[in-house]
Design goal:
single chain; 762 residues; alpha/beta
Length: 762
């Protein structure tokens, strides 16, 4: 067995000490550090006749029954008077007079490993390691040089490897047993539902070929187990080393966790970790990741290795609760622990952003080890809007105006730069007024604004780097990160972007809007071994394949419902639900809904197009029907409130829930049997007309209205209908309320198993 590690990753794991500290460090540090390397390397090229920079080195080190493969690039190799020198360059703001020879043992360790590699490769008996510290303030260099015999370096590396060996051995033993149990594990149910075996075989074949598979499969087919099971078999066959199960909904994360647990109950050994947003898993009232404010950040790196080993020895399914347990037990940050455990896990259950969002994705996992990853992308229809969000950035005038007021007379240079940006926003608002519109859009990137932002961020870095106690520090920090995000997206800007300015009396927004995220999504998926994108609502199929980054080389699979068609009866009432007609048609529509529900009493969810419509309908229904069984969705429900809401649906209750289509209860919830016998969908899910919607519409030209409004709307409807039939024994009914369902466009989009739509009058 081979374990692959970069030199830096290996050293950081073995030798890291100290605390977490996410307080501001300048973004320019990394950029200036690269420039410092380049300057010193260029100087060395002029100074030494025999000099190489950025030299790739590697070594395989025996660790008994397996080997450790280390690789990396050393900054430079100098050959001088027959002596060989390995140089490591480190940039710093620390005054050089305060840097002694033993300033940082990790720096020496990195250089010594490269020296060891070079000695092995070139059969050298001794070598020099040179540490060069480049001060970014004064552009001066201080170097230290030490001579090492090869035998010394062998002993040094052996000592590090011995420190690492117990972790490697634990991982090796785990994977050995894992692969043995993968070989013997069987599909965890008595048989396959219709379509499950076809999906499982298609996905395993896709993994074997290292490609992509798009799957449209109706709700209830069992997509989670049908994709996880063959993925695990693929891991056992050596086709990958880690599964990422991606979803945008917490309830889907729970389904994935339960699926892995079910397989573990049947004998599978397979370690998974669930990643939870920092704000949700933090053990403090306020997220503040530094040793002064957080006891869980203090000495984190000094403690975490022992915790990792304990987790490796004792845990298989590492949930939010388990992470918090170890966090409290050892006083370490549970969020950072979860990220550490990704490297030691066979499966990771997380949000889309950990793979796709350029601001937060797991860089080492994707950029360095992408081909080890098998990606399962649940409810893939959600990735269209999420993809746009992840590659979009906005700035708001109000934030700059507020900060300008607070910096006036305190930091003159910063104030001037903020004022210039504020003036830019004012001019953009005037441009909107000239065109007599509240927004303008262009395909051009705002280069002038980006230049102003670069000057502002450099000035902000200098102010924030002083560590002064400023009343506006948090606001400056927030705006600094917003500006950097905007600049990062400007570097991605292409023909798939539109810049828009939306101006009102009180606010101006400037947005780099990624209209078509397909190229970005594809680029990330191309780094991975294989990806399956599955949903019940990839309709129309070819459109979703295109916008989600698919191409002609990708596989595609459409599956029919596994349940008898007669289990779901879909009725239609041609009411007018368009915005202008709602006041007039509300009484007749509510009457039709109640008549439908009373025909077969039980638990129902009525989905409305908006909270406003739902509120008016609820007032009418309470007044006319005065039932205690009505329950109404609130717009700001937390996880506990959502759970309490769903718990009201029992086998013998007769709840009538009023909800919003596209909201928390129209997707991902599971109410089998008589906990839900029917739904009513008022409208066609047509999204509210919006600025971004209109930009999408214009971007896609003749198909614009469908892509911006019709397709997203019908997907919401299909998700809502999918709440009714969850198992083979479920029987349910649906009422679609809108005259547009008879139109050609909509009738062509609804699933065949709904047809023919039954007349609700019968």
């Amino acid at each position: 067995m081979e374990i692959k590690k970069s030199v830096r990753e290996f050293i950081e794991f073995i030798m890291s000490r100290g605390s977490l500290d996410n307080r501001f460090t300048t973004n320019a540090r990394a950029i200036e550090g690269v420039r410092a390397h380049q300057k010193l390397q260029k100087s060395n090229e002029e100074l030494y006749k025999d000099y190489e920079k950025e030299v790739f080195l590697k070594a395989d080190i025996s660790m008994g029954i397996f080997k450790l493969h280390l690789e990396g690039r050393c900054d430079g190799i100098i050959v001088e008077n027959g002596d060989v020198v390995v140089e490591e360059i480190k940039s710093t703001y620390t005054p050089l007079v305060d840097i002694p020879e033993d300033y940082n043992t990790m720096h020496w360790a990195q250089g010594k490993i490269y020296a060891y590699m070079l000695c092995r490769e070139k059969d050298i008996s001794y070598i020099y390691v040179q540490l060069s510290y480049y001060n970014l303030d004064c552009n001066e260099v201080k170097s230290f040089r030490k001579k090492y015999e090869y035998i010394e370096l062998v002993e040094f590396v052996k000592e590090l490897v011995n420190s690492y060996e117990k972790y490697a051995m634990a991982d090796y033993e785990h994977k050995k047993v894992r692969n043995e149990t993968i070989e013997m594990i069987q599909f965890p149910f008595k048989g396959y539902r219709k379509g499950q075996l076809e999906l499982a075989k298609a996905w395993y074949g896709t993994i074997r070929e290292g490609k992509r598979l798009f799957v449209q499969a109706p709700t209830g087919i069992g997509k989670t187990i049908s994709t996880i099971f063959p993925s695990i078999k693929g891991i056992g066959a050596g086709l990958g080393d880690r599964i990422f199960y991606l979803t945008a909904k917490n309830v889907n994360k729970k389904v994935a966790e339960d699926t892995f647990d079910k397989l573990r109950e049947d004998g599978l050994i397979f370690r998974t970790v669930s990643l939870v947003a920092k704000e949700k898993i933090c053990l403090n009232d306020k997220v503040s990741c530094n040793p002064e404010d957080c006891s869980y950040a203090k000495d984190y790196y000094s403690k975490v290795k022992n915790v990792i080993f304990e987790v490796l020895e004792n845990e298989e399914g590492v949930s939010r609760e388990i992470l918090q347990h170890y966090g409290e037990k050892y006083k370490i940050c549970p969020f950072e622990l979860s990220l550490e455990l990704v490297n030691w896990s066979d499966g990771v259950i997380c949000d889309y952003n950990y793979i796709f969002d350029p601001r937060v994705y797991l860089r080492r996992v994707i950029d360095e080890k992408g081909r080890d990853n098998i990606i399962l992308l649940d409810e893939a229809h959600n990735l269209v809007s999420r993809g746009r969000d992840m590659y979009t950035a906005s700035l708001y005038k109000s934030k700059f105006l507020e900060l300008r007021r607070e910096t006036r007379g305190k930091v003159p240079s910063l104030y001037r730069h903020i004022n210039k940006i504020n003036d830019y926003f004012i001019q953009e608002r005037r441009n909107c007024e000239i065109e007599d519109r509240n927004y303008i859009s262009t395909e051009e990137m705002p280069k002038e604004l980006c230049q102003l932002l670069r000057v502002f961020t450099r000035e902000a870095e200098e102010v924030l780097g002083r560590k002064d106690k400023l009343s506006f520090r948090e606001k400056l920090l927030d705006l600094y990160f917003d500006s950097n995000s905007f600049l990062s997206m400007s570097e991605l800007y292409g023909d798939d972007y539109v810049t828009y300015v939306e101006g009102t009396k009180d606010e101006v927004e400037i947005c780099l809007f990624c209209v078509d995220p397909s190229k970005r999504l594809k680029a990330t998926m191309d780094k991975c071994r294989a990806t399956v994108l599955f949903s019940a609502t990839l309709s129309p199929f070819e459109y979703f394949i295109k916008v989600l980054g698919g191409d002609i080389e990708d596989y595609r699979l459409r599956l029919n419902s596994p349940f008898p068609k007669e289990n779901l009866k879909v009725y239609h009432y041609p009411g007018n639900t368009r915005y202008m007609a709602r006041e007039r048609t509300l009484p007749s529509i509510c009457g039709k809904i109640m008549k439908f529900i009373k025909q077969e009493e039980g638990n129902y969810i009525i989905f409305f197009p908006s909270y406003d419509y739902m509120k008016k309908a609820s007032e009418f229904l309470y007044e006319e029907y005065c039932s205690e069984e009505f329950i109404v969705q609130k717009s700001d429900m937390d996880e506990k409130e959502k759970e309490e809401f769903l718990n009201q649906f029992s086998e013998d209750s007769k709840k009538i829930a009023l909800c919003v289509v596209g909201g928390a209860f129209s997707e991902g919830i599971d109410l089998p049997g008589k906990r839900l016998i029917g739904t009513v969908i008022v409208g066609v899910g047509y999204p509210k007309i919006s600025l971004q919607g209109e930009i999408i519409k214009n971007y896609y030209k003749e198909d614009g209205d469908k892509i911006a409004y019709v397709y997203p709307g019908i997907n919401k409807v299909m998700q809502a209908v999918g709440r009714v039939i969850r198992t083979e024994s479920d029987i349910g009914r649906v009422l679609l309320v809108d005259d547009r369902y008879r139109n050609r466009i909509y009738s062509s989009l609804i699933p065949d198993e709904w047809k023919p739509l039954l007349d609700s009058k019968k």
